[in-house]
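ok, trying the design again with the full structure, not the truncated one.
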């Protein structure tokens, strides 16, 4: 090759496609080495020959009847496939791109030739790649749709789970109510005789079952974002002292030593006392359950950096490092503790953290590992300069001998409640439907009506409205007794004309106060 060729000459001569130029009459003026090589000719052999010598008869006819007119009218002809005659007589299919340009006083046709077989192979490969990409896109789209459907199903299942927990906890309250009333009757009648220990065992286990049901109800409210807080200034020292007192039977049964350290000055937080008591009780219960009998539990309350900090520390089974991040998840229980834990559903810590978060606080956990105990720290923001009103504790007096109408479709619940009320000296009358209550009220003239809400004919709210419309019940104290205890339920009761709202199972001391 001539060493004096410029870079442009090299690009033209060694281009990946055939390039040539002809005059308007088809005389070949120049052609690159690539085209010569395709046709099996020596370099420069095409120069001075005529185009029609390279074209078979059919291609010549097509060129002069189709390509030339387009060059004359449009100055270009694109994507034309023809055959060229090779040196040995074989045919080479090519794809032509033609452009006519004027060079001084003459017209020059510039040819770009692509081997059709290579072009087709490239196009086929490109088509295959495109089809493969489309296929992959469709597969990914199907997977995305399946994932979306799975997420929708999981969300629906999670919602059904929350609704199931709420319904289950509510339904469990119904059998708990007559059990609580029956046990209260036994405590009143036999609390000081030889059966006191048996009755005490029943009482502790029933309270434990009631707490489990309460936890189920509360955790379902948290997961559905339906928990409502009844905020007021709360002295954490008094609250912790009360929770420790409530958990004393459990600590005694396990022979645990509980050391309590409370500050002399009050630590006041803005919170729902009932919910916060649940948190503290759950933390104490967790320590008691996961500490072998005869263990040591330290409970310390102190003020730290504008927060009330309650630390519950035990020398129990400890927590593996890998479980510290999941210990607050719903239904989580440590495997080593399943064999020794005294009951539980794995919801106590999840509920405790949820309530703490609703109060703007947090719960932290620390443990040096299995067998080395653990510490849970509850942190709640303090209220500066707030004084909690002291509650003056007074022993409940004996209820007045009132006429009480008990309305409940659960026969056992109605009869055990009536028995307990009669021990208070009350006169009772039972009804198991709303219509039955309306029929009995005018002659009985009840001074108190204890009404279930879920009645078979119409609900307790409507019954309360109708009783208020009777002259015989104009001054009757109406008390709602229901398994639903949210603020919304209390408001419904107030709107219907109830004077008080009690959640099943009914606390005998609260009822005693209402009857005084």
């Amino acid at each position: 090759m001539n060493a004096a060729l410029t870079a442009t000459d090299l690009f033209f001569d060694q281009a990946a496609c055939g390039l040539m130029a002809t005059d308007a009459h088809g005389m070949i003026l120049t052609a690159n080495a690539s085209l010569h090589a395709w046709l099996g000719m020596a370099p420069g052999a095409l120069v001075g020959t005529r185009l029609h010598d390279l074209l078979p008869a059919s291609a010549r006819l097509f060129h002069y009847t189709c390509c030339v007119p387009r060059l004359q009218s449009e100055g270009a002809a694109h994507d034309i496939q023809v055959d060229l005659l090779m040196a040995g007589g074989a045919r080479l299919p090519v794809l032509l791109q033609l452009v006519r340009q004027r060079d001084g006083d003459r017209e020059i046709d510039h040819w770009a030739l692509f081997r059709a077989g290579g072009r087709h192979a490239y196009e086929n490969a490109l088509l295959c790649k495109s089809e493969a990409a489309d296929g992959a896109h469709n597969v990914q789209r199907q997977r995305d749709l399946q994932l979306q459907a799975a997420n929708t199903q999981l969300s629906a299942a999670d919602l059904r789970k929350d609704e199931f927990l709420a319904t289950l906890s509510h339904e469990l309250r119904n059998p708990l109510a007559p059990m609580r009333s029956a046990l209260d009757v036994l405590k009143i009648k036999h609390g000081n005789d030889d059966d006191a220990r048996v009755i005490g065992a029943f009482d502790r286990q029933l309270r434990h079952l009631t707490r489990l049901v309460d936890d189920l109800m509360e955790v379902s409210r948290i997961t559905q974002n339906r928990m409502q807080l009844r905020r007021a200034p709360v002295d954490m020292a008094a609250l912790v002292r009360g929770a420790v007192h409530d958990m004393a039977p459990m600590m005694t049964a396990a022979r645990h030593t509980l050391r309590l350290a409370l500050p002399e000055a009050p630590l006041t937080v803005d919170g729902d006392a009932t919910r916060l008591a649940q948190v503290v009780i759950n933390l104490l219960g967790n320590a008691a359950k996961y500490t072998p009998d005869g263990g040591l539990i330290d409970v310390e309350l102190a003020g730290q950096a504008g927060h009330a900090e309650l630390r519950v520390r035990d020398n129990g089974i400890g927590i593996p490092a890998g479980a510290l991040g999941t210990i607050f998840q719903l239904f989580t229980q440590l495997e080593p503790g399943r064999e020794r834990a005294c009951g539980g559903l794995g919801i106590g810590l999840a509920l405790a953290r949820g309530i703490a978060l609703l109060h703007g606080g947090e719960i932290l956990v620390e443990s040096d590992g299995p067998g080395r105990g653990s510490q849970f720290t509850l942190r709640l923001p303090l209220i500066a300069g707030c004084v909690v009103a002291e509650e003056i504790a007074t022993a409940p007096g004996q209820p007045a001998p009132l006429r009480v109408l008990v309305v409940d479709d659960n026969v056992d619940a109605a009869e055990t409640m009536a028995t307990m009320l009669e021990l208070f000296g009350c006169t009772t009358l039972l009804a198991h439907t709303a219509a039955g209550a309306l029929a009995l009220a005018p002659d009985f003239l009840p001074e108190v009506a204890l009404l279930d809400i879920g009645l078979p004919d119409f609900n307790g709210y409507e019954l309360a409205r109708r009783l208020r419309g009777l002259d015989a019940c104009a001054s009757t104290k109406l008390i709602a007794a229901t398994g639903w205890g949210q603020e919304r339920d209390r408001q419904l009761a107030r709107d219907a004309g109830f004077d008080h709202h009690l959640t099943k199972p009914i606390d005998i001391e609260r009822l005693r106060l209402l009857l005084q």
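Keeping the full-length input from now on. The CA atoms of residues 182 and 378 lie 37 Å apart.
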